[in-house]
Each structure stands twice: as C-alpha cells, then as structure tokens.
Amino acid sequence: MKEYTGLELEKIKDLFTNETGYQTPKIDVRGVVFNNNKILLVKEKIDDRWSLPGGFCDIDLSPSENIVKEIKEEAGYDVVPTKLLAVLDMNKHPHPPQPYHYYKLFIQCEVIGGHARNGLETKGVNFYHEDHLLKLSLGRNTDPQIKMLFEFLRNPNKDTIFD
C-alpha cells in the first residue's frame, strides 16, 4: 500500500485501524446538474481544482439523500435527484492512487431552489460548457467522466452506465 499510494506506513495503519468486518468499497456520490448546456462544478479548497459536487455517502442516508445534502453544502442549490447516470469502479478509471477502493455514483439532479454559494470545502461554484472545463480534481472526477455525463445531456434516454 505504501508503494502504491506514496503514504507513510503509520498513516496507512491509521487508515485501517477502525475498519472492522469484511472490507468493501466505499461509496462516493457526485451530483450532475445541467443548466443551459453547462454542468455544475465546485472548486475544491483541498486542491484548488474543480469537481462535481459530492462526497462520501454518510451512514443512515441513501445515495439520493446524500447527493441532495452534498449539493446544498458545497454549491448552495436545493435539488431533486432524477436519474442514476452511472456507477463506476474508481480503479477502472485514471484516478490517482487512493488508499481505499471506491464506487462512484453519478446522480443527475434538477435545481428547485437556492443559489450559488461556497461551502466549507469549496471556494467556487459555477456552470461550465463541455469544451471550457477547468483543471479537474482527478481524485473526484476525470475529463472522460465529465464528457460521458454530457452524453446524457444530449441523449436523456441513455441507459445507466456501470462497470
């Protein structure tokens, strides 16, 4: 693990100290909100790069409840989830190495209220055209994934993608 991630051995031990039971992938939800052929992105404080709003699923919240919470906290918008677009295994895509194994759920949402507002973890909120994307936070989402999501904008009847 140390060789794969570059983390110090003590940090790796700390990561797994509280893990009990059978090890399974963690779940990361990402909100997909389109407006005028643009996609909602937030600027992450942690790496000064852009991502779809989202994060780890909290215990006792469903994926839909989690994404509603995450979009409100990170971007300021009130949303309603409308469609599960994709379930992707992070290890099957060009993300940087991570200490845990994640499944990423991309959930399309419609804005029903609120307004653009930075959150505790974000310092920018904006909608971007597919051909004008800024530097992405690759631990959260990749350029091919964003392009994949724009396919759903062009074809709303496209089937859910999973791998």
Structure description:
The chain is α+β, with helices and mostly antiparallel strands and 163 residues long. It has a single domain, classed as Nucleoside Triphosphate Pyrophosphohydrolase. The chain contains 4 helices and 9 strands; from the N terminus they run H-H-E-E-E-E-E-H-E-E-E-H-E. The chain has a 5-stranded mixed sheet with strand order 5-1-7-6-9, covered by helices on one side. Strands 2, 3, 4 and 8 form a 4-stranded antiparallel sheet that branches.
Q: Identify the CATH class.
A: Alpha Beta
Element pattern in H and E: HHEEEEEHEEEHE
* CATH structural architecture: Alpha-Beta Complex
Note the beta-strand portion: 25-35%
Q: Which runs of at least 5 residues are low in confidence (pLDDT < 50)?
A: none
CATH homologous superfamily placement = Nucleoside Triphosphate Pyrophosphohydrolase
* Sheet with the most strands, sense and barrel status: 5 strands, mixed
The backbone outline, from C-alpha atoms, is: globular
Number of strands: 9
The radius of gyration over CA amounts to 16 Å
N-C termini distance: 24 Å
